[in-house]
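Protein modeling request. Please complete all fields; requests missing the sequence field cannot be processed.
Requester role: graduate student
Desired output: 3D structure, token encoding
Chains: 1
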Amino acid sequence: MKRNVKIVCVVILAVLVLIGGVFMFSNLFGRFFGIDKEGLKKYKYSCGGGMLGDSYSESVQEYSSDSALITIRSSEWHGDDGAVKEYLVNGEILNELKAVFVKYHMKNWDNKKFTNMFIADGASHSYSFDFETDSVSFSSQIYPEKYSVKLENLSEIVAQYLKDAEPLPGLVREEAANKGDYTLSYDRNSGKLELSVYSYYQKSLCYRIVNGTDENKKPDSAICLYKDGESVPILEESSKYDVTLYAHSHNEDTVTLNERLLPSKYRLESLVAKQNLKYGKEVRRRPTPPTQLRRNWRPEL
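Delivered output (301 residues):
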């Protein structure tokens, strides 16, 4: 009887050890067992971290059941508002990118260290793949040839789809920054508060509030987007936290739209209250010059 009990205990222990081993193996090595069978929702390549702070990125993400959105963003230095170009292409591009991912077993590249070399002030090249339930990402300053030749397949696919693609409407700004002279597009010593939209891509509208005065200011949390000429906002969003805008400084934030804007003129407004209460009044921020979305893309923002 005791012998039978010992045998049962040993069997139970063996089963528990086996289950634990399988679970551990699954966590350590099998996290992506089923990822190859999932649909690719988004792919992104980005390069940045150089001495001047220049950057470049291209992303491909699902837009509808049969289309994908390619977004290309670039900036020449850390203070450059950058340029954005976007294209709507056939959704098959995501399947082709996934095919490369599967072919070269890139699920095993997640957080991989490709080389021990380090280049001071050198740029890093990052890749990410977002699937239905999981994601894979990796980054390196240098990719050995056996990896770089495989990664070239990804850029070739994107380039092929861009060949005949038409650019989508983009942000047009009258106060475009001068390229190449490393001058900021805003003035922190203007003596006034200024609100401007500096970038628009996918469903994100990026804005900047600049305090060019000698006083600290506390912008109202509400940001309102209007179609030019209309008084009812098409979007009103409040910040989740209070921000104090110190003298001669700026703050950047983003509002997320429910859908892409149609080509037209829009304006963005915010209410700014004087922090010094002895004045006992609020100052209404004058509307920014209309931000226009046009069919013809102008690379300078």
